[in-house]
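Q: Convert this sequence to C-alpha cells.
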Amino acid sequence: FFLYGRASTREMFRWLSLILVFALPALTMGLLAEEKRTGTIELLITMPVTEAQVILGKFLGVLGLYAVLLVLTLAYPISVSTLGNLDWGPVWSGYLGLLLQGSAVLAIGLMASSWTDNQLIALFVALTLSVFFWVLDKFLALLPTNAASALEWLSFDYHFQSMARGVVDLRDLVFFFSVTAFALALAFRALESRRWS
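A:
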C-alpha cells in the first residue's frame, strides 16, 4: 500500500484470490467424505430430505461461513480509507468477485467430497481442480490464439481480475454461477447414485 502511494485495495484482492484457491478446499473436504466414512450418510439420506436439499444445505452452510470470513476482512479497506481517498466501487465489486470465486471453489470442493469417503483425497482433488482453473490463463503465450482465448475464458483469475478493477460484467457472473451450478449438479449425481448402489 505504501509503495504505491495511493489508497487502493487491489493488491489485497489479488492475494486473497490466490489464497482462497488453496484454503477453501480445506473447508469442504469433510462435508460428505466424513459422513460416508463414518456411515452417517445413510442416516442423513433416510431422513425426510432429498439429496438436493442435502447438497444445498451443505453448500449454503459452508458458503455462509466463507461470507463471515470475508466480512472480517472489511477492516483492511476501512483502514485504507482513513489514510486516503478510497474508491469504494472497486472494493464492493472485488468482494463480489471473491464471493463468486469462493462459491465456485466451494462447489468444486463439495463435488470432490461427494466422490470419496477419504477427506485427504477430497482435499487433493478439489485443490487440483481449483488450482487448474486458477492458473489456466498464465500459460496463454505458449498457445495459438484461438486456444488461448478459450482457455482464458475458463480461468478463475481472468474473470476475477475484471471485478477487482471495478468492472462487473455479466459474462463473469454467468461463468461463476455456471461453474457453481455444474459442480453442485455433479455432487447431487454422486450422492444420488449411492441410493442405487
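The CA atoms of residues 15 and 56 lie 29 Å apart.
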